[in-house]
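Review form for a predicted model. The reviewer records the input and the model, then writes brief findings.
Reviewer: anonymous (R2)
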Amino acid sequence: MRTLLNILWLLCGGALNAIHWYLVGVLMAISIVGLPWSRACFTLGTFSLWPFGRQMISRELVTGRMDFGTGCLGTVGNILWLLFAGWHLALAHLVLAMGCAVTIIGIPFAVQHLKLALASLMPIGMSVVKCP
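Model under review:
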């Protein structure tokens, strides 16, 4: 079922969403100033490509150790991300979730947009993992 929903998601806009995140990640990497945020963009791109059956959790839980993204610098980076990019990306996903939730068939897609909205608020130091 996850595979079918992921394929439908991909065909109904998920691919465009992922391409958007990957392009933003490349632009941030090129700008050097945005380099710390480019990894978060690629993580969100991967998450938005195949969201069903996956979730974002702290990278510290995955690796078992702290790094720059999961420590104090990651918190500062997340606050800057939230102020400059995260709030309007989350708002866009909320609007898309409301549009999907209008129909019964769109409710699973609305749930995924809500997951992406939450993930786009503070993505630094996060990793995408499969749900058990």
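Findings: The chain has one domain: 2-130.
Further findings: Residues 2-130 form one domain.
Recommendation: see findings above.
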